[in-house]
Amino acid sequence: MIAVLGLLVGVVAGLVLEPTVPAYLQPYLPIAVVAALDALFGGFRALLDGIFDDRVFLVSFLSNVVVAAFIVFLGDQLGVGTQLSTGVVVVLGIRIFSNAAAIRRHLFRA
């Protein structure tokens, strides 16, 4: 219940305050969001499978975001930022849909 309340407060604060992302961080934000979604779907799948561990979830969440941002940074430094960004989104997207399919199978027994 506290987590849901915190989420609602955060969403309302974001809508009211309308924060802006600095220009140098803008290429990394979408990748970080997709990496975070991958960790969330993986955590929910683990919860349904009965193997959820909060430490593993936290490490997965942080490492996904850091590694994805590093790959995009490396691509920017090499001059191929959009290609590596696309690769990161494709890989994480595949993982998200794989976890979503497992969640669907678990919830609907299908």
Task: Explain what this protein looks like in three dimensions.
The protein has one domain. The longest helix is centred in the C-terminal third of the chain and has 28 residues, at 81-108. The two termini are 30 Å apart. The chain has 4 helices and no strands. It is globular, with a radius of gyration of 16 Å. With 110 residues, the chain is mainly alpha-helical. The chain is 82% helix and 0% strand. The chain crosses the membrane at residues 24-44, 56-74, 80-103. Keywords: Cell membrane, Membrane, Transmembrane, Transmembrane helix. It comes from Cellulomonas fimi.
Describe the secondary structure blueprint for this structure:
Blueprint: H1 2-17, H2 29-49, H3 54-78, H4 81-108
Helix pairs in contact: 2-3, 2-4, 3-4
Span from first to last CA?
A: 30 Å
Mean pLDDT: 90
Q: Count the strands?
A: 0
Low-confidence segments, given as residue ranges, are none
How would you describe the shape? globular
Binned, the helix content reads over 70%
Radius of gyration (CA) equals 16 Å
Largest sheet: none
What labels would you give this structure?
DUF1290; 110 residues; globular; single chain; transmembrane helix; mainly alpha
